[in-house]
Amino acid sequence: MWRRLRSALRSLRGSPAVPPPGGGGGGAAAAMERAVVRCVPSEPKLSLRFVLPDGSARHMQRDQGEPLGRALARIATNAAKGHGKAGKKSKKARAEEGAEGEEAAAAPAVRLFSRDGAAVAEEVPNAAAWQDGAVLHIGAARYRVERNPPALTELRLPRSLLAGFPVCPKVSAEFAAPQHCLFRWYREQRPAGGGDAPGEAWVEAAEGERVFTPSNALVGLRLKLRCTPGDGEQRYGPAREVESSGPVEAGPGACTFDNRHLYTKKVCGQGSVRAVSYNILADTYAQTEFSRTVLYPYCAPYALEIDYRQNLLKKELAGYSADIICLQEVDKSVFLDSLAPALDAFGLEGLFKIKEKQHEGLATFYRRDKFSLLSQHDIAFSEALLSEPLHKELCDQLAKYPLVQEKVLQRSSVLQVSVLQSTTDPSRKLCVANTHLYWHPKGGNIRLIQIAVALSHIKHVARDLYPSIPVIFCGDFNSTPSSGTYSFISSSVIAEDHEDWVSNGEEERCSMALSHPFKLLSACGEPAYTNYVGGFHGCLDYIFIDKNALEVEQVIPLPTHEEVTTHQALPSVSHPSDHIALICDLKWK
């Protein structure tokens, strides 16, 4: 704690906001101390931090609507206390100083001057008085006011670093944006005499890059990042440094997605959309004893660790240069601490929907320079079924089958629906849906109910709220092409006598005739498999598109069977999930 306090004091007493490389800022203004003001409209108080000439730090909270004069009076009182403490001397010393000692102990004059040198009236409210560039006078001391300067609230490096894989730091800042921050990367220096033990010194490895990819030459060395927070007005705050907890390790060599990246080197043109759907295997499932010993016994234990798999995931997803990415089985912590910061660095904005009572959920990412988010319409199937009038007819039918109804309502499955608008052609909008249906092999009837709710909800968004906008419906549907769910989605109807209504036996028969208004096509067709584990392989994942409005430009080939089975099955040291990403380029008709 004391180290942090000393560091904070040093940053307060240091030079004003760090200028950009090559920036000036000389003269008297540059020599001033700093008075840092944090003033946010949504908060009732502002804070003021400065360091008195005697070295004591002051941190004050004042009402934003309070007159400036009261705040200045309080500063004067604080400054007098500081002088008093500093002036505690022997009687003889005070007697020798005489009147000078008395004057030093008195409260200094405190005034605030605007940027143009005019005195700020004492009746002006604090929120309006403390402007950036103003100058605070405390006796003979001068402080330049920095209002809401850029500041880092978090800077973190991943725990696992692999050569050849991008290192994407987590950067959280206040009054700053990562794209305006300054980054400088360092590596440990090897000892001059050779050997394996790294030296103490740091050598600059890269400057200006938010994402750094260490080469094989850096294996065995730790990394350090220095980040200076900045904003769009080229203001810069105090820099922070963070060192990696461990050294760069050797990568796994060839990965299943390397050849796929040859097709996706560039982002699609404005008239096209590259979509990705991918179940990335939640850590909460990968780390169970059952997973290690029964589901994935062929996978090296270290390759099931989330720190390792995140390296592969970030490189794989970044290399697809996608416009829309729909992910399933996304741990909340993985989204917040890893994927969202990493994909943000590659130009993608992320949205997250957690499953009810779970630690994982769905994530949708969209490319910021191609799309803006108009609205979100996420639902939990069980809750929507019971509470939304939209599903009343289906709910009434389901009530006739209490065993099935109970199972449907117990499921935590959710649907993520985002409406996006083209940044270059506002007339072009997309309804992007993302889901992960119930997994059980005998749960075909449950999945039919879930998909009926999903399609009804998507219809409400893409027909009622935004008339006739195209739909892209991605997900892990846990349904093969021969299933009732796939048939219902692609043919628009499901008969009441379909075999999936009795998927779990006659006692759970649930017979309904259902329909939906869309003409949906599986953009990537019906691959032999999208899920390949030791005991099962099959096609469970799809990107369905509105074939009246969209057409397929190209489907990025899946990894070859030899690539998938190099390490027997998935996941593996060269593939982060038990599923395979689907990728296709689409265009408006």
From TrEMBL:
It is found in: Mitochondrion matrix. It holds the Pfam family Exo_endo_phos. Residues 1-29, 78-104 are annotated as: Disordered. Residues 277-579 form the Endonuclease/exonuclease/phosphatase domain. One of its GO terms (biological process) is mRNA processing. InterPro entries: CCR4/nocturin_mRNA_transcr (IPR050410), Endo/exonu/phosph_ase_sf (IPR036691), Endo/exonuclease/phosphatase (IPR005135), PDE12-like_N (IPR048821). The keyword Coiled coil does not apply. GO terms for molecular function: metal ion binding; poly(A)-specific ribonuclease activity. One of its GO terms (cellular component) is mitochondrial matrix. Its cofactor is Mg(2+). Residues 82-92 have a biased composition (Basic residues). Its main location: mitochondrion. Keywords: Exonuclease, Hydrolase, Magnesium, Metal-binding, Mitochondrion, mRNA processing, Nuclease, Phosphoprotein, Transit peptide. Residues 149-249 form the 2',5'-phosphodiesterase 12-like N-terminal domain. Belongs to the CCR4/nocturin family. This is 2',5'-phosphodiesterase 12.
